Each structure stands twice: as structure tokens, then as C-alpha cells.
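Dig into these lines:

——
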Amino acid sequence: MNKKVSFQGWVLLAALFVLTGCGGEAALTTPTPTPTLTPALLWTSTPSPTPGAAVIPAATAAGQASPAPMCTELELELDYRQVQQAEGFFAEMTAQGRIPLSVNPHQTPPRVEGKGEAVVGGGGQAGDCAFTYSGSLEYDLHGELLLDRRPPVIALSGRRGARNLSAAGEGCYGGLLAPVFTEDVPLFEIEYREGAVLKYSFEVPTFHGQAVWTLHFRCP
């Protein structure tokens, strides 16, 4: 006979890592693993594009320059995946979305702003409990286009929030991970060119993940 299992003993709202720094440089620290033997549904402090010690450098095409005239309609794509696995427990959480960015070329340096959303998905299994994740992440970014850098880069920071993050399914009681919360997005930089990629990854015992940010030009 299947027993319903409460998520209340599993849900752990904890930041997996802390990213600090400025000018696109950051320090990556990991927390002490929780001493409990009970599997926990871990949600990070939401995907941050800030590069850290585990950055996977993006390839840069030789001789590729920023466009002329300047492209002022951009889009920042997020593809995020985190996995937790322990005895009798597996969970995969994803977040995918696009953040439109606009550039104001009449300011010096050009101002960059944008808002967008990433949809949360994935799920897992814990004993008789099969669950799915749902909800969304909301980003409000602003910064500058630094054309005097070689190659040119976009420096961004801002705020991000989560709305109605939840884990619910069959054979278990659902849990609302975080109804609404907001936090700062630390300063990060991405090269100003079509297809520029910024990656970072992290790993602690039983838990790992990777985020990929891709810049797209949306000019005619």
C-alpha cells in the first residue's frame, strides 16, 4: 500500500552558492552539506549568470567585431539545469526563458535594460512520490554597453524573483517552495556579439548543475 509522504520534511530553501565581485570577476563558494540523511529538495538562490571559478570559457570567433551600425534590440537566453540524487531520491529542475534587452545609443555609454521570464520545469521521484516542479523566474536587468572594451561587452546587474515555485505530484503532498521572493543579480559581463555564450557550473556532494546564457541580436 502506497503511503503519502509530506514534502515538509524534504523542502529546504537554501542558497547553494554565493557569487560576489565586480567587473565580471567573481568568487564561488559552496555551503557545508546538510547533515540530515533525509533527502531534501534543494533550490538554489535562482540561476545567476555571474561567472565564477567554475566558468567554462565561451569560444570567441577570431576577428569578429561588434556590428555597425549598433544593434539595439537584443535577447538574453537562459538554459539552466540542476540535478540532485541520493539513495531513493532523484530530482531535476530546469529553467528556460528569454529576456529582451534594449540599448539606448543616445547615452554615453549606451544604456541597456530589459525584463523577462524563465519557466521552471522538471521533477523527480522520492519513494512512492513522483513530483513535478512548476513556477517561473522573473528578471529585471540593467547596465551598460562598453564599446571601448576589446572585445565590447555588456555589463549587467539587477533583480530577479520567483513566482509560485512548487513541487507537487502523485503519492505525496505538494509543497510550495517559494510563493514570491526577490534578490539581487550580481554584476556580470557577456561579450557583445551574436551568439556570445556565458557558462558556469557547480557541484557539491549529491548535487550539481549548469547554466548557459546566450546573447542574440534581434535587429533586421
Observations:
- Residues 1-46, 49-67 have pLDDT under 50 and may be disordered.
